[in-house]
Structures are given as C-alpha cells and as structure tokens.
Amino acid sequence: MVPAIHSSQYLLSPLYHLLLNNHTRRMRLTALTKSTLSDWLQLLATLCHHAVPIASLVPQPPHVYAATDASKDGMGGYWLTTTLEADNAPTAWRYQWPDTLPPCLISADNPTGDLSINDLELVAFMAHHHIQSCCMAPSPYRHTCIATDNSAAQAWINNGSPSTIAAPEFLLRLLAHNCRDQNLTIQAVHTSGATNTIADLLSHSFDLSDEQLLLCLNSLAPSKRPWRLVTPLAPFICNMNLALSKKLPQRVLPPPQE
Predict the structure, then answer these.
(1) Could you give the CA distance from residue 193 to residue 115 in angstroms, rounded to a whole number?
(2) How would you write 29-77 as a 3-class SS string?
(3) Cα separation of 74 and 123, whole Å?
(4) How far apart are CA 36 and CA 40, in angstroms?
C-alpha cells in the first residue's frame, strides 16, 4: 500500500526496528515511535486529500535536476529546471555548520562522535529539497532528481529506511512531512565525487563572499540567466538541529481538511 499513501515510505523504519528488535511480549514505545504512529493516523485521515497520480507509479522525466554535497565545513547544492517546469534561473545554496557540530562528527581524530558524514549528506539532501520547495512556485506532483556522491544517503532516500535507529530516522520523518505537504516526489541518484564539482564547491566555499561565489559559478557553469544564491530558512535549520540531536521538532502532519 506504500505507493498509494504519499510519502509513507519514510515512516516505516521506526516501526520496523521496533518489531525487529523486540524479543518479548512487551514493546518499549519511544517518543519517535509514538510520533510515527500519530503520523500514520494522520496519513490515513488525510488520504483522500493526497491523491497519488498514476504517472507517479511509473518512471517519469523529472521537472528539476539537482545535486548536493556535504563536508566537514558545511553543505550546499544547486538545481536546474527542465522543459517541464517554468524557466527559472539556475539556483545554488550553501550553509556553514555551526561550531557545535564538527566536534560531534566521527573521524580518525574523534572516534567517539555520534554523527557520520553519511548523516550530513542526508541533511544536505533534505535541506536542498526544503529550500527548492520554498523558492519555486507551488506545483503539485513536481518530481525532482537529486544527485549525491554518498551511496548511504542515496539508499536511505530511495528505500526510505536506514539500518539503525539514529539521526537518519528523525531526518526522514521531516522529509515525509515536506513531501506530503506539497505533494512532491524525489529520486536520489548516485554520481561520483569527481563529477559533483559544483555541489562540492558549494560545500567548501565559505572563504568566498556571496558575490565572489556567484562570479565563480557564472564562470564555471555559464547559462542564459545568471546564477542566484539562496539560503536555508531558520525553521528548517532549527528542525535539522533537533533531528541531528535525535529529538523531535514540534511539527505534525496537517489535520484533515473539512
């Protein structure tokens, strides 16, 4: 039934892990489990307001092509529209991590960290989807193809399920909300790091001012319309930080329409 319930694939993992790791007759319902069960009730209650078009069940050309990347310094991405979408300028975004995040990143020098680069790559993917949906005119059933050079993030997005209960499950729950609110669909594709040059530049370019970065983009990838630069909105950054801390934001799916 997942294909018929918009964005539900991102809400299965917490329940799956609850059943998989349960070896007794009693189940421990965490805050994430309770919130996920509440999400499912909302999905069912609003089912008639989120019809799934038959075209979304078969391969279809994307309305938008995009790419993202994350590094120890920050994250970034860009998107280009296809002929299926109104003509928009090529758009880039970037965000530098706060000082509190690098100490949490697992590395050879910090093996006790609780966040991996895979987690940050998933955040970059989600940030891109949120920024794009906020910057582009509303268009139900818009399909976006987003490239990433991180195979773990690609698998989490396409399968809707991380392998462990950690930050990715909290992040995917936010993604489910964003996709369902606007009836949007996404597909993650893998690209090698050597070809992800623009997104890689954006995730490392914090020594450049906005004006210098735009000059660099227009020189590196010239187009008929000049590049524009946007930034993530504060509410998303707040929710992102909570999800990375394995905490739930004060956010639920919209109630049923009358």
Answers:
(1) 21
(2) CCHHHHHHHHHHHHHHHCHHHCCCCHHHHCCCCCCEEEEEEECCCEEEE
(3) 10
(4) 6
Q: 195-245: per-residue pLDDT in tens? A: 999 999 999 999 999 999 999 999 999 988 999 999 988 888 888 888 888
The rounded distance, in Å, linking the Cα atoms of 170 and 182 is 20
pLDDT band for position 173 (cuts 50, 70, 90): confident
What is the pairing mode between strands 91-96 and 143-148? Answer: unpaired
The Cα 171–Cα 31 span in angstroms is 14
Give the C-alpha separation, 205 to 101, whole Å.
18
Q: Give the chain's length.
A: 258
pLDDT tens column, 12-64: 888 887 777 666 777 778 888 888 888 888 888 888 777 776 766 777 788 99
Please state the φ and ψ torsions of residue 111, each to the nearest 5 degrees.
-70, -15
Q: Global pTM?
A: 0.85
- Where do the H-state alpha helices sit in the chain? 13-20, 31-45, 117-135, 151-159, 167-182, 197-204, 210-220, 234-244
Look up residue 161 and give its two tokens: 């399920």
> Which residue has better confidence, 152 or 2?
152
Q: CATH fold of 2-244, please?
A: Nucleotidyltransferase; domain 5 (3.30.420)
